[in-house]
TrEMBL record:
Cofactor field: [4Fe-4S] cluster
Record protein name field: Putative peptide-modifying radical SAM enzyme
Domain 4Fe-4S ferredoxin-type, chain residue ranges per copy: 292-323
Key words of the record: Iron, Iron-sulfur, Metal-binding, S-adenosyl-L-methionine
InterPro entries, sorted: 4Fe4S-binding_SPASM_dom, 4Fe4S_Fe-S-bd, Aldolase_TIM, CHP04083_rSAM, rSAM, rSAM_sf, SPASM_CteB-like, Sulphatase_maturase_rSAM
PROSITE patterns linked: 4FE4S_FER_2, RADICAL_SAM
Organism: Methanobacterium subterraneum
């Protein structure tokens, strides 16, 4: 099974998004020495293919020379792992030189826009939109694949139609995130989207996607439909990610996921020590997240969607005990209601289509008849 290593060169970021929990002023910047140690760690760590995602903070703050040296080290020294790469960036520091380098390594780019300029800058800071779009144009000049994450908040949810139409009309592919409470935030609920609102949003976007599949890619809906179709999760939110996802912070510390980077209590080891899987499994963070898996197996065993939901994201499920100040598991992902809403809707529509077609021809798969309305199976059978 493939595994995923998120490389976080810094938690520093030049933008100031109001709901952000993954940036930190004054964060150090990773040196190439940590990349070299990461290579040595992974040479004999696992034999499956690996994907490296550069994340942050803002990873491009590491600079061109860092990526110029890091990418060939990872690609060549770990060629037996068939490494693939990805990058999540606000694009502010994108340059033609970086774009050409990323094109050489076939790196897809993920960036962030919350919708039209006025709405986006209200949530992400004045000037964010223009700076990101400038970087986007540089990336597109080198024919890089760029997709956007739109974070829906308790404020922006009321403009869901405007946001979807913005991406549609500008030919931008979309992945959405609900604003989440953070373990780092003293006022975590301010921007957070309720689970019911998130579920309604997903159903709305499902309807829009069925109408506009030729014009836009909606990754969340693709993933959710695939989950139902193959009866297992296809993204980290809906699988037992523990032990298959790791994050490396600027100083080489190893965490269960990029969301924990910079929080000492979740360090599992350090790449400079070249830990084995057994070594990492001795850490408190590893044990805590495996407690989540056990909790799901017990509490969700009667749920119709357990095989392809797995309780959602364990980070989302963590809560801080006010008495001890420590994280603990006492529930599943708080967006459980939303997941049930969308999985139920997809399952209901797919069943209706299959029964209506006599278990034979799948309604809406063919595009030859423009009068045929696409059905849910057209998303389930869509090639990735």
């Amino acid at each position: 099974m493939a595994f995923h290593v998120m490389l976080v060169p810094t938690l520093g970021c030049p933008s100031d998004c109001k709901y952000c929990w993954s940036s930190e002023e004054g964060s150090p910047v990773m040196g190439v020495d940590i990349i070299k140690e990461t290579v040595e760690w992974l040479k004999n760590f696992r034999e499956e293919p690996v994907t490296f995602t550069f994340h942050g903070g803002e990873p491009l703050l590491a600079g061109y020379d860092f990526f110029l040296e890091a990418l060939p080290l990872l690609a060549n020294e770990l060629s037996h792992l068939k490494p693939a790469f990805a990058l999540q960036t606000n694009l502010w520091n994108m340059t033609p030189e970086l774009a050409r380098l990323f094109k050489e390594y076939n790196i897809p780019i993920g960036s962030s826009l919350d919708g039209p300029e006025e709405l986006n800058d209200l949530q992400r800071g004045k000037g964010y939109y223009q700076r990101t779009m400038k970087g986007y144009e540089i990336a597109r000049e080198e024919d890089l694949q760029v997709s956007f994450i739109s974070t829906f908040t308790s404020y922006s949810i009321q403009y869901k139609e405007d946001i979807f139409n913005f991406f549609l009309e500008n030919g931008l592919n979309l992945k959405l995130h609900p604003a989440l409470p953070s373990l780092r935030d003293e006022n975590p609920e301010k921007w957070a989207l309720s689970s019911e609102e998130y579920g309604e949003l997903l159903i709305y976007l499902l309807d829009q996607y069925l109408e506009h599949m030729d014009e836009i890619e909606l990754k969340n809906i693709d993933h959710l439909c695939k989950c139902v179709f193959i009866r297992r999760g296809v993204v980290c939110t809906f699988v037992d990610c523990m032990g298959d996802t790791f994050a490396v912070g600027p100083d080489g510390s190893i965490y269960p996921c990029y969301r924990f980077v910079g929080m000492p209590e979740y360090v599992m080891g350090n790449v400079q020590d070249h830990p084995s899987m057994d070594d990492l499994a001795q850490s408190d963070a590893w044990k805590l997240l495996h407690d989540f898996k056990d909790y799901v197996d017990t509490e969700c065993k009667k749920c119709s969607y357990i095989k392809f939901c797995r309780g959602g994201c364990p980070y989302n499920a963590l809560s801080i005990n006010e008495k001890t100040g420590k994280a603990e598991i006492n529930g599943v992902d708080p967006h459980c209601t939303a997941y049930k809403m969308i999985f139920k809707e997809i399952t209901k529509r797919a069943t209706k289509e299959m029964l209506g077609s006599g278990m034979g021809m799948i309604q809406g798969v063919s595009d030859n008849n423009p009068q045929t309305k696409r059905g849910i199976m057209s998303i389930m059978l869509k090639q990735s």
